[in-house]
Specification:
This protein has 194 residues and is α/β, with parallel strands linked by helices. It starts with 5 loop residues before the first strand and ends with a strand.
Length: 194
């Protein structure tokens, strides 16, 4: 049986990459062509997928693969995620949005390119997720919320309705925003944002 799925490179081979692999396999829209990671890791495997190159190889790999996703996580800083996103865009890669088949995204919501909605996350009506974002497992993005580019809404975090999460922000696990608030920066796990 032929595999007609589009092939995708995953850029970053750490813990977040493992979770992304699981989402991509469940979603079933793409096949994973390989992982891009540190030069010294070429030839090793992540959950059975080979590390086939490093950042320096992305331009030449574009001849064979045109779809990629940043799979480096983000906790204290998103500098690496932003750098990789910009590099992939400059080369010409397509960065699709990826949504777990176990997540719910309202048909009235939008998810920007290069963003991923992980298992059991919920994105409600008229929410807007920017590009290169992580909406992590079991997080909730309520109606009319705006998540700007390069953000990470961590596991089980709650973004209440009409809230705006400014670009480059991180909401830690189990943090909760107040409705109609504006949040920016690094928010610790379990924090209630008033």
């Amino acid at each position: 049986m032929l595999n007609n799925k589009q092939q995708m490179l995953l850029v970053g081979g750490g813990g977040h990459c493992k979770s992304v692999i699981d989402v991509i396999e469940q979603e079933g829209k793409f096949s994973i062509a390989g992982i891009i990671d540190k030069k010294e890791l070429i030839g090793t495997k992540v959950l059975g997928y080979e590390v086939i190159g490093c950042d320096d190889d992305l331009a030449s790999l574009f001849q064979e693969y045109q779809i990629a996703l940043v799979t480096v996580g983000q906790v204290y800083s998103n500098t690496v995620r932003v750098k990789l996103y910009k590099l992939l865009k400059k080369i010409g890669y397509t960065l699709p949005s990826v949504v777990s088949s176990l997540a719910y995204v309202s048909k009235y919501a939008s998810v920007g390119e290069g963003s991923i909605v992980m298992h059991h996350a919920l994105v409600n009506a008229h929410a807007n997720i920017g590009y290169n974002c992580i909406i992590n497992s079991k997080s909730l993005v309520e109606h009319d919320a705006v998540i700007c580019e390069h953000c990470h809404i961590s596991t089980a975090a709650v973004v209440n309705g009409n809230t705006r999460i400014e670009a480059n922000s991180f909401l830690g696990s189990n943090s909760v925003t107040k409705e109609s608030s504006v949040v920016s920066g690094f928010i610790k796990a379990g924090e209630l944002i008033k």
